[in-house]
Amino acid sequence: MNQNQQNQQFQQALNQQNQQNQNDQNKSSNRRIVDHGNSIMKWFIERNLGHDSININGIIRPEASYLIDLFPPIAYRNNNLDYDLQTKFVHLSANKAKHAIHTVKWTPEGRRLLVASYSGEFTLWNGMTFNFETIMQAHDCSIFALTYSHDDNWLLSGDQQGKIKFWQPNFNNVNIIDAHPEYSIRDIAFSPNDSKFVSCSDDRFLKIWDFNKTILEKNLKGHNWDVKCCDWHCNLGLIVSGSKDNSLKLWDPRQSNSVFTSLGFKHNVTKTKFQPNGSQRLIASVSKDKSCRIFDLRMMADSIVIRSHEAELSCVAWHPIHSSMITTGGYDGSMNHYLLDMLPSNYDSLNLSRNIPQNSLQPVHTIPYAHEKAINCLEYHPLGHLLCSAGADRSARFWCRSRPNDPSAFIEPPYTNDKPSAWYYGINNNVNAVQEPTPQMLKFKSQLLPESGENTSSSISTNMNNNPAGKINNNNNSVNDNNNGNNTNKNSNLNNKRADDNLQTDEKHSHTSFAFPGLGNSERKKEAAPVLNELNELVSGFDAAPIPGFGSRKKS
């Protein structure tokens, strides 16, 4: 009798465990992650073997099997900048109590993203899995400015009441000053040696402060209206500021008067940033007059004027690795990527069809519906493989490089303005379910992925020679079916398998897909299907057999 009871109890416990396992399996969903460790390690091994990064050119082709050959952005600093365009939407992060976001900063080591909201809260999001970590009340009012010191030991934050708080890396508040009483602080920047910092405010002034003594050193007067942005050169004693009076001014920190004033803008200057790498002699500024101007300190004049945006511009960001790459965000929620060394003649026919002035640089990629409302800030990850955007729609969104031969490249919400339930909005901030394939996605995928035995390269993926402006954009996508990057069997079955497993994101196995720059604001009223048909017609003269150099042979 005792033996029977024990058997029954054991069987009951076994059934309960099986039921629990089944329930867990039904509830489980793939977490989107971006793990950059594997690509960095692979690049490190290649360098130790004596392989020059220049030879990387031509490796990544529009096939899913090449996803494991993608290196970190620093490997492409001398070539292939198209690899590092952040075009793929990865994750949407939003607090349960949602508030508009004005500024975000990556922590110096790049592990977390710090989000400052209009409610005065600091929120930390994991930079790899994008899950919520912690939240704290940092200010009593809206936070408008964040900046880390160059030695990564201090964080400054400025709020709507004109107060600046000093934070240690563990978010211990050690000091507070009333920098601009009763006026909103719009921007803060450290000097090259971190001994001083500059702040700007709606009171029309820029103020230079001694960081250690927390005392005011100079009051820079010259703007006639609210000062909306400022930046301190990372190596020079030079400050730039932009104002609501439409002017851009350069300042010598030793003097109280500006040394140069640019009056090229026709509306408010909303953001200005020094070039962080390369020659470090350029300034990118955006304005509500829908233009982005690249100011050259060597000529003391605008070297490039970009007028390709159809809406007022709110923010701009330099890529931390590539000195010629910038990203702009608009008040309409759109986002554009530009390569400053690209000539207008190098763009494809789709871009040339857009009504853009001849002397203006065109975007290599446009995300027309990146946000539902104005984009307030853009911030690149220190490694350059991720981009975070945040804005008035009360969310922070992560973008990474696109994947090779991605069947859903242009039919996701940022391109079609479609909002599919919780996957897009991130109602639950824990794991965020992956997107369920829609009939449109399945139909398009079936067109790109023929039956087994046929060539898996689509007609779109073979236009590499005919699309020099936006050839290939790479994304970091986690595919759990391959852990060996050097012994991968590149056959059609593996290509189909990897293309089917297209919902997880990871730097470990990076997919590549090229983006057509013409899919921008002029096309935003069209449905996804007509746009894709137009692309198919564009590349119909090319076969599906790629050859070295990313391209394909033209039909005879």
Automatic annotation (TrEMBL):
Keywords: mRNA processing, Nucleus, Repeat, WD repeat. WD repeats lie at residues 136-168, 185-212, 220-261, 368-399. Residues 1-32, 449-527 are annotated as: Disordered. PROSITE patterns: WD_REPEATS_2, WD_REPEATS_REGION. GO terms for biological process: co-transcriptional mRNA 3'-end processing, cleavage and polyadenylation pathway. It holds the Pfam family WD40. The keyword Repeat applies. It is found in: Nucleus. SMART domains: WD40. It comes from the Eukaryota. Its main location: nucleus. The keyword Mitochondrion does not apply. Residues 497-510 have a biased composition (Basic and acidic residues). InterPro entries: Pfs2-like (IPR045245), WD40/YVTN_repeat-like_dom_sf (IPR015943), WD40_PAC1 (IPR020472), WD40_repeat_dom_sf (IPR036322), WD40_rpt (IPR001680). One of its GO terms (cellular component) is mRNA cleavage and polyadenylation specificity factor complex. Residues 1-26, 455-496 have a biased composition (Low complexity). Gene3D superfamilies: YVTN repeat-like/Quinoprotein amine dehydrogenase. Required for 3'-end cleavage and polyadenylation of pre-mRNAs. Also involved in chromosome segregation where it has a role in chromosome attachment to the mitotic spindle. This is Polyadenylation factor subunit 2. It comes from Ascoidea rubescens DSM 1968.
